[in-house]
Design a protein that fits this description.
It is a single chain. This protein is α/β, with parallel strands linked by helices and 416 residues long. The protein has a single domain, classed as Aldolase class I (TIM Barrel, Alpha-Beta Barrel), CATH 3.20.20.
Length: 416
């Protein structure tokens, strides 16, 4: 009988140790205030997850610039004004033995209309026609704006370290700004920031370099990276592996593998074939790609997406293709699932596709964000999640809340 690898500790390249191989991957929380500070809701939510036995907890999107939000209620870390509650947020996990990493992000063009005064991207490439009603065409970022964003990533990471977080994760996936720079579809520049795969990687490597410069070698820095964008002309598997090699050479501590964007939401399982026997048996969506990465680099790998059972997780770990199992949506409907999984038992809850019946909405995969965000808010406020909440009603309620949040965010920003 093979040993249970979920319970085995993992030492990262810089010497930091995770107490086991089970991680909570980032999910959209939008539990910050409308002026973008962390709240006690986040502290309570992360206390609940840390108590479940997770080895690593990665926060949802934390933005590096208040002018560039992905959603109303994003936390922004651009100065030390929130340091006291940031320390409480970090301690919510670390006092219970879990490592907690802040996921740092910039949305680029992937921000809904009306939230920001303007959106920046590598190039002024619009969203596809059926999404243009939700997302504006961005403005091409200038060289000085690019440099400012790079410096912001480093400053935010340094504040996270000062607050007592265990590490940071760069969000380089799912169609946000770093992913946009990597993608030939979104990045059509011909200067030092685009024009070849090497130049498209320049922004990411500059962000990583600035973070490392400000936090030092003893502070874990990971990245969430797409295996591919799954859209025509986008970031490919071949370029992803090239990027991973470059990050490994630069000293990255862990790579989380995912895939897709809002326009092609592979990260939610929306593009996986649920009837394909190999997909069902393996559970993990990106395991084949992880095996290719493992052959190329020795950096610890985390795979998120599709895992359902303790047996499936252990089988994946025994394959050697990954070192850490990432869970997300399951923890929004069963926050105690890790305790069962670490004892070899499965959660009684199962993740199911969320549908509104509205084709334009369902094509975007946006309910895989909005519906689960609603469950996180319930847990944060001491209530039980609602695994069977209807998709359409959740969408309508979320649309109202998002609209009000956008209005309040713009009003508060106008007063600054």
């Amino acid at each position: 009988m093979k040993p249970d690898l979920l319970n085995q500790p993992l030492r990262l390249p810089n010497g930091a140790v995770l107490r086991n191989r089970l991680a909570k991957a980032a999910m959209s929380e939008t539990l910050g205030s409308y002026d973008n500070h962390p709240t006690m809701d986040l502290v309570r939510l992360y206390q609940r997850w840390a108590a479940s036995g997770l080895g690593l907890i990665i926060t949802g999107n934390v933005m590096v610039d208040r002018r560039a939000l992905g959603e109303p209620g994003n936390v922004v870390i651009e100065d030390e004004s929130s340091l006291p509650i940031l320390r409480q947020w970090a301690q919510a996990a670390t006092e219970r033995g879990a490592a907690i990493w802040v996921q740092l992000n910039h949305p680029g063009k992937q921000s809904t209309k009306g939230l920001n005064a303007f959106n920046l991207a590598p190039s002024a490439v619009p969203f596809r026609e059926d999404m243009a009603a939700f997302f504006e065409t961005p403005r091409e970022a200038t060289t000085s704006e690019i440099q400012d964003i790079i410096e912001r990533f480093g400053r935010s990471a340094a504040i996270c370290k000062k607050a007592g977080f265990s590490g940071v994760e760069i969000h380089g996936a799912h169609g946000y700004l770093i992913n946009q720079f990597l993608s030939p579809h979104h990045n059509r520049r011909t200067d030092e920031w685009g024009g070849s795969s090497e130049k498209r990687r320049h922004f990411l490597l500059a962000v990583y370099g600035e973070i490392r410069r400000q936090v030092g070698s003893d502070f874990p820095v990971g990245i969430k990276l797409n295996s591919a964008d799954f859209q025509r002309g986008g970031f490919s598997e071949e370029e992803s592996i090239e990027t991973i090699r470059a990050l490994a050479d630069a000293g990255i501590d862990m790579i989380e593998i995912s895939g897709g964007t809002y326009e092609a939401p592979a990260m939610s399982g929306a593009m996986q074939d649920p009837k394909k026997a190999s997909t069902v048996a393996r559970e993990a969506y990106f395991l084949d790609f992880a095996a290719k990465v493992r052959a190329a680099v020795k950096v610890p790998l985390m795979v998120t997406g599709g895992f359902r059972t303790s047996a499936g997780m252990n089988t994946a770990l025994h394959s050697g293709a990954l070192d850490v199992v990432g869970l997300a949506r399951l923890l929004a409907i069963d926050p105690d699932a890790p305790a069962a999984l670490l004892q070899g038992r499965d959660s009684p809850q199962q993740v199911h596709p969320i549908s509104t019946g509205l084709k334009a909405v369902d094509r975007m995969g946006i309910m895989e964000v909005l519906w689960y965000t609603r469950q996180l808010k319930r847990i944060a406020r001491g209530r039980a999640p609602r695994p069977h909440e209807g998709g359409l009603s959740a969408f309508l309620k979320s649309a109202v809340i998002s609209g009000w949040g956008t209005f309040r965010t713009r009003r508060l920003r106008a007063r600054d």
